[in-house]
Amino acid sequence: MPTTETPSLKERYEQVIQSNPKLRIKEYADLLGISELELLASSLHDPAVKLQETPIEIYKELPKLGRVMVLARNENAVHERKGIFGKVQVHGSMGLILGEDIDLRVFFDDWKYVYNVEKEHNGKMLRSIQFFNKYGKPAQKVYLTDDSNEEEYQKLIETFRSDDTTLPVVEKGEKPKNYNAIEDIDFDKAISEWEKLEDTHNFQTILDTQKIKRLELIKRAPDNLAYRVYNDAVIDILHSAVDRQVPIMVFVANDDIVQIHTGEIKNIRLIENWTNIMDENFNMHLRNDLIAETYVLFKPTNDGVVTSLELYDMEGELAITFFGKRKPGIPELPEWQAIIAELEKAK
Asked: Does 106 map to a domain?
């Protein structure tokens, strides 16, 4: 009986790209049933140069590149911000970059692979340094701009170029999310702690202490702490922020990083299933059809109440968060509170 040979990755990729010629690398990887890193490392889609597996050391060099564009995403949203890196502060596996342009919270625990990618797109050379976690998922991608320091970029690539040309062997799956069973959680205690918050950052501590899935606590909160609104509320608040010139904060996170934009927004575009912000220094792309629930949250602090809009995906995980522009020690903008107050509660 003749045996049927399993098609190689190259053959499978060629079949997929012939049927779907205009997809992005992530979409091709999904169709092939492999991680984005595995497809990138094969150099079938884009030419890629492997850098040393020292992501923190490479990351510390990024301020030398000058003005760049940083891209972070999850399954539901993409966040792109141009600017100059401030100092990369690293404390153990935690990273912190505080700047007007580049504002990041980094969790280096699972970061492992780094690749340099240079490809032509629409007649222009796109050059990037791409960081991946041990599961082969992109943590963040850093792209050069016309104002980047070319000499420092070349120096970084040559310094960290890897002699190891073997393909990465990624761990299957993704970072586990360990939540306690509903019956094992004291929600009354968690809500009481929420009502006594003095700092928004301590909200995560409430969740971590009892290993509570964020959405499960929010669903059980009284209306003075959280209530559900319609999923198109995000479109309303963005248009209101543009019309009234109210600066906002946009948070997009994955398992490895939180990327934050702060400032006014100007250009909102709705294209098919996507809500987009298309500004000179900030782009956001949100898949509306992947959002299952949307909530307004109120967190008491020493500076007054902090109000946010949180969007959750089909898995009940946080997709994207919006705040009014604020800093510790400064009360929330009343203009932002007015925008949120106009949203209709979901029935």
From this structure: no
Quick check: 283 and 267 in contact, CB under 8 A? no
Contact status, residue 264 vs residue 247, Cβ threshold 8 Å: yes
- Domain hosting 49: range is 9-89+113-160
Q: Domain check: are 40 and 80 in the same one?
A: yes
CATH number for the domain harbouring residue 143: 3.40.1570.10
| Paired tokens of 119 | 């490809």
Q: Specify whether 285 is located in the same domain as 242.
A: yes
Within-domain flag for 53 = yes
- pLDDT tens, position by position, 120-131: 888 888 999 999
Q: Which of 295, 291, 292 shows the shortest CA–CA distance to 220? A: 295
Write down the number of H helices and E strands in the chain.
10, 18
222-265 pLDDT tens trace? 999 999 999 999 999 999 999 999 999 999 999 999 999 999 99
The answer to pTM > 0.70 is: yes
Do 239 and 149 share a structural domain? no
